[in-house]
């Protein structure tokens, strides 16, 4: 066996069980980053339109119920509230009369739920407070002394429960389609929650990017070392999914770089490919880079036009999709089992809305795994669309504001095929409802960046890493499978705890072997896999 100099460098940063406040002043100083509107539009940095009395701050959260039957806004934490000692929530609210329709009670409710469940509302407890229109006021929700409503009458009193991690705010009731506009500021919980224990990955190492830089005024083709232009129709060589009616081409006419941005240009024109003639063209790009876990940031501006359907998304590198860049060399699995991650989708007939979604065996096509938000300038201004993908969850945001978190409680092949490499796709499709007057419109992309974790546990080994190595499922319950890849049939496996102490050694003399880890407690570990030509450390999470 080749001698390897392997020096472990432990770079762990421990954060003691610090306590964290739960607050937001909507001036950029809060600890809440996951505000989400359900049937309601939100803007968490809206210029305060009523600087008066008790609230002269510059920015507030704007809540706009657009007629959703159960419209609300909410946020969710990773940790649970402990209401046994700290049980009070407060915020300021202003509801103008001019923003109300219907005859609902002027009220605001605060609901606590267990957001980790498939039906979070089933655990709900709620306090309702009356409000006065046309003035700022502070409302307080005391889950010890105020009158509360448990959705399940058999549930314990809120102060005797420890399962709440979601806060829902609802104005003027529910089960109605009346509209209401409100402004909220200075949200505060009077206690704290368990702080960061450093288990969450920090994706701070830029590993791949395209900045689409070029000479001003000069049109150039894409960097073909980074991008592949997919053109062969995936449905019988004739058409594309979703009822799309365009051809994708590899021409510079449809995808090019100019003035520092990528343009994917959808055009109305007659074009034939593979014996089929269509009336629209566009481009669909595949990245020649695939990865597992990390942060994707894409700064982009959507096209205009009813019937346009742009997307920034990802597919499993193992997809068997004829004509795709990876299919010939990596394709083993069909859709949706390969896993699809839609970082952002936009529909021209819903101009102010963007959405993120997941497609897998548990739900696909009209998937239930989705979340979106309204932004009024998706096609006129650049926004940063971000996916943070770890071994435990996916978090989607626009301009730093989270609108959807995907985190199945019991991960399995049905709902979590996301423990294997994925690649990026950028495209603009044309749907059958395209307007007759459409001529052309482009999606512009300023940059695409992929970040991963800096290795916490690393080796001083300069050999080329074996990218085929896989450890799955991860997170895992009792069993893990270690696949050393095609070139290795033997490996030494050492398991370390988060303090860097070796706690177990596995033997592996075959390419793929399943190991029992049921003896481990729940938590984070590091598995060092050393073969004849490689040494890698993989973060392992035990459920």
Automatic annotation (TrEMBL):
PROSITE patterns, per the entry: GH16_2
Extent of the signal sequence: 1-18
Keyword Hydrolase among record annotations: yes
MF (Gene Ontology): hydrolase activity, hydrolyzing O-glycosyl compounds
Domain of life from the UniProt record: Bacteria
Keywords attached to this entry: Hydrolase, Signal
Pfam families xrefs: Glyco_hydro_16, Por_Secre_tail
Any one Gene Ontology BP term: carbohydrate metabolic process
InterPro entries referenced in this protein's UniProt entry, alphabetically: Beta-glucanase-like, ConA-like_dom_sf, Glycosyl_Hydrlase_16, Secre_tail
GH16 domain location: 162-456
Family under the similarity heading: Belongs to the glycosyl hydrolase 16 family.
Protein name: Glycosyl hydrolase family 16
